[in-house]
Amino acid sequence: MSSPAESLWNNCLKIIKDNVSRQSYKTWFEPIEPVSIEDKVLTIQVPSQFFYEWLEEHYVSLLRKTIKRELGEDARLEYKIVVENSTGQAKPFTVNYPNYNTGNNKNPEVSMPLVVNSSIKNPFVIPGLKKVNVESQLNSNYNFDSFVEGDCNRLARSAGYAVASKPGGTAFNPLVIYGGVGLGKTHLAQAIGNQVKQNFSNKTVLYVSSEKFTNQFIDALKNNVVNDFVHFYQLIDVLIVDDIQFFANKDKTQDIFFHIFNHLHQSGKQLILSTDRPPRDLEGMEERLLSRFKWGLSADLTIPDFETRIAILEKKMYADGIELPRDVVEFVAYNINTNIRELEGALISLLAQASLNKREIDLDLAKKIIKNFVRSISHEVSIEFIQKTVCEYFEVPIDKLKEKTRKRNIVQARQLSMYLAKNYTKNSLKVIGKHFGGRDHSTVIHSCQMVKNLIDTDEGFKESVKELEKKIQLSMS
Ligand code: ADP
Ligand code: MG
Question: What atom of ligand 1 comes closest to residue 187's alpha carbon?
């Protein structure tokens, strides 16, 4: 039996589902939990402050309409937001949202808890050190225009955009961008910086790699000018620190960064950080620093899908004034699926080879060049690795893949492992069959066909395949 709140919310979801994309529905509505319904007030629980703001910004009218339709004109919606308190335990608090009827969304009670009054004065400012003297160290080619949007970066990109239009004034502070190598962290972080400069010419933006920050700090220590170092950083309005995983195990650097972080955050200044892994997986990092990272938003960048890879290549070609046949572009996008830097690398080597050989780039040439390229960049992945990854994912024992069991979930794991082995290893069908309890090559072909059919017909299965492919590709990069 579902509670009244649940059944009401389920009705709402049916309407919502028809009005938003599948991806948005999954991202923004599935995680919502209905809590209660009392006196025409529906309370829903959302996982974070950011989540709440996103709903308010993008879906407020849909939510309003839907809830009115289900509950009547005087319906109201309240949010419960799960926040992390200092002990790290999740604790919900309630945000009232009473003004559905007046259309007035500006409710003082929903002011963001993480934004601190920006009028706090900096007691350390050195007279004479003018803000305008700070060189931002930004590359102007890294902007939002050149940053192609896709599912792989949608959240990070829009959060970044929000930050750029209101630095220090959103709940995304710090904004932590994370993702593997070559997936666009530096590009996006710099795009935010460039955009801030465009929007607010009086704001001081600074981009610094964590290595450079560390070296500057060491120099300051040597020369006895740590205070100046700290004061300099405290003048910045938007501080971008790239690749903070390099702070790992550098205790003194972390201390000083903690100090600067606090000062800037308390003064309503914006921090943008990037790392190659989610903050929770950062090792050698002080707990108090990690807990600060959780104050804002962590958004990841993942490997772009095929269509986005094509879009990125086309953008790049356009910017460089190059034209390539469509089949060549597709071939490159299809075969380079590790990261965007590799994708660009492939394009460059294609152009270089073409001019060296004085011939037009056609599919044949592309095939020759990319073949070398792919081999040199990818690590081999083994059939065993694929089997292990698939079995962990579906929670089935790995030995079962080699047995004759015809249980549905095992058959599926077995067939999918074969399919992935065919696509991601250079093994022959015969060798692949051997790894699955000595099955013959026609069984492998049949399995691959079954998997292809399922991908076309079963959305859930397709998602699983995508996730597994991502895992495999990550291990290859
Ligand atoms: P990371 O810092 O994550 O290692 P970079 O930001 O250096 O990655 O990106 C690698 C290359 O890929 C850069 O040349 C960058 O311009 C390009 N790139 C990354 N993401 C995108 C995107 N979404 N659209 C266009 N180019 C991108
Ligand atoms: Mg980078």
Answer: 6
